[in-house]
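Archive entry. Fields below.
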Amino acid sequence: MAAGAGEAVVGCFRSMLAAVGLRGQPGAVEVQGSTGGMPGKVGDEGGPAVSHDLNIEGISKYFGPVQALAGVTFTVKAGEFVTLLGPSGCGKTTLLRIIAGFERSDEGHVRLGERLLDDLPANRRPVNTVFQSYALFPHLSVYANIAFGLRARHFAAAEVDKRVEFGLGMLQLDGLAERYPHQLSGGQKQRVALARALVNEPEVLLLDEPMSALDAKLRAEVQIEMRRLQRKLGKTFILVTHDQDEAMTVSDRILVMNQGRIEQIGTSSEVYEKPRNRFVAEFLGAANLIPAELVGPRTVQTALGMLELRADPRWERGTLAIHPERIEARRTPPKSNGVRVRVKDAVYRGDHVELLVEPGPLRVQAVPGINFEIGERLWLELPAERLEVLLD
Amino acid sequence: MWYGHWVSRRRLLGRATSLIASGILWLLLFLVLPGVVLVVVAFMSRDADGQIVWSATTENFRRLLGFGILGWSADNGWIFLRSLWVAGVTTLVAVGLAYPTAFFIAASSPRLRYVWLSLVVVPMCTNLVVRTYAWELLLSPQLPPSMFAAWLGLIEPGRALYPNPGAVYVGLASTALPFAVLPLYTNVERLDWAIVEAAEDLYASRTRVFFQAILPQTLPGLSVAVILTFVPACGMFVITDRLGGSNFWLVGNLIQQQFGPSRDIPYGSAVCIVLIVLTLLGLYLYRRRGKAIELV
Amino acid sequence: MSERRKIHPVVTMLALPSLLLLYLPLVAVAVYSVNSARIGLVWEGFTLRWYRELLHNEAMLDAARNTMILGLVSTAIATVLGTLLALGLARFPWPKPIARTLDVIVDLPVVTPDIIFAAAMVIAFSMLRSLWAGFVPGMLAMVIGHVTFQISFVALVVRSRLVLIGPTLMEAGRDLYASSFYLFRKVTLPLLLPAIVAGAMLAFTLSLDDFVISFFTAGPKSNTLPILIYSAQRRGLSPQIHAISTLIVILTVALVLGLERFTRYRKA
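PREDICTED_STRUCTURE:
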């Protein structure tokens, strides 16, 4: 092919530069490590033992006139499981592709520890990806698929064998080595894709909506399995998803993205309990949003009446958020923050009863047991400690 | 831009250019350039040896319209009218037969479908001369078709069914048939039967179901089938030459005559332009209607 | 997969004439190629005599040789050029107007009626002759003519497979440390190979199928089988022509079956 001598020379030149200028050009390190540890044993001598934080510094990306990413900055600590969560088109996949090396950022840098990754193409980054559709090579067996990254770097056959066997075992794929991708179930394919990435001992594993092709029941199992695997290996995992349940199940921290920006970074409970703005509050758990106006110290006027807050908001007019399950429905008036409402609709959901009430409209999850009639008037308590003050 | 290494768009396009250069150059040199020259040559004339004389003239087009040395003649007019007529009849027959065939193939089991499709593709890939020869054999006096025709009194006993316009229609239709079946089949295979069922559910009669739920869905395939049948039929000369005899010429024969025995390339080019205009018209329709249809 | 529908028996009955129209003549030729009667079409018993006689017919053997050389040489050239064309067109960020122009050029041979194509060839070769007097109609001209239309079909087949494979597998290969060359050798080429073979077989089939272009560019000395049959037809029907026609049909069947085997694509 046309990728001839010129390319080869440039490639050599680049790897020399990498070797001289930067400790740890991926290929070299991995070959060194291959004599020592088995995959997954972080901390062994020689191998990619030292993990680094991944720093995303002011990344912007334009597709023609469209800005896909607008100066995104954050740090993923070594061994952390971080989820990029957002609706489709929010830029999360683009960000992942920039980290993987499939796209180039227009501004900003990707750094692993001190090392700048920007100028390294995908095949020279210590980063591996599990693709949304798994992207298994249809002409290669499971074994050859998993061995691909090792063979591409010309590992010794014995080492390839050792690592592939380990990968097969780690993901319960024993006995499937000779199968071809079209002979596998969806779950098996996904595990092969995971094994194929992990046997390379990447410093960072990127997962691009890896569970979207699985059915709901399997997905729940795989999420827990994924979490367990990440804990065991101690690797940095970055997951892209639009499913907030999935994000909360697996991750140490969640990055909520919208329109190329990060809306909030925090642990699952932080982003759920203390959303910063309306977008986060609505995207996670579909909270009730209540427009409010500051009328006195820690007191706001809303369509539901006067409500007390636990602290003064920074605005004159703004929004409050409260999750449906944090509202208490009762027949007697509460001590504070009580709201008199009328039931518009009530739906039995098994573990709770979902009420839609007026004024509001507010959504409330009430404990089953009390029978609510449609049209019935009742009291709601919106506890001050559960009312979140949003920034916008 | 990323391609194994980070490369600029310009370098990437440079590499792409080196990949396609040989093929594109070949096509430019042997097809596009001669095609342009063909249009130019149509406005030239030739000397007694068949060499092209490079001086602009519209003589060829005047001749095309029938203004010859011996005054006006209707011969060319007849050839064009006959071409359109014959191509039209061929299209009607071929598409008419192909339409049920496409449904028949689409309705058979996946295994059988392969068999039927192969059966359609094989004649398409069989050399035209061989197929024409085969028709000549089949229509020869001693075989049932001719004998049957003689019994009906259509031809004299002991004569072959060719040369005869009917033989040309049959030959052309059988040649065009696979080209009509394939686009229709791809279309029928992707038919949305839910619409048909909805129509049936709403108590539409059989004819209404066909005209309002099935036919509109097969229009893209139909238009491609018509184009792939009509345009080649106009340019055919082997079948008319063998099965039609010397007084049943189509545009194709006219072109062949000029590029072959008569060695009047400028005049032949002028006739080609007429056919090209027809083709472009067909292509325009194809682009507009048949986007969803793939042949290979 | 589309769901299967029951069709009305009338449709089946209407479909039957199609197959008769396609196969009756071919079957007749095959039957009479093993008929021992030399003259006339009356059945006089089975024989392979006409096939044996083919082997002693110098003109026939010469034409068969020419047909094969023409098919193989043009296919070889067209497969290489067409594959390169497909690779260059499918995987690069061509600006829209250029991409459209290139598409038109590449699709041109597919949509041009063969008689106009042949006319363009005649003009191309007379241009060539005015530049280089030594160029005469014959094998070289026929090869050029065939390559010109084959390129497009090879490119078409290979390109549609490239589109089918999609960019993700290439990205996966890159992600797994493959260099450009390793990726091409281990991923692109193996996945593309069936399409390249299919393209080559299609090219060969089309070469065998062509009469018009060869006829216009052959010149007096190089006969191909179709040209031979065409001129022999003038002298009437003959059992040897039945035989060679049958052989051509059999070869076509083999090629079509082979083609189908290589155009199927299994997605993981």
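CURATOR_NOTE: The radius of gyration of chain C is 23 Å.
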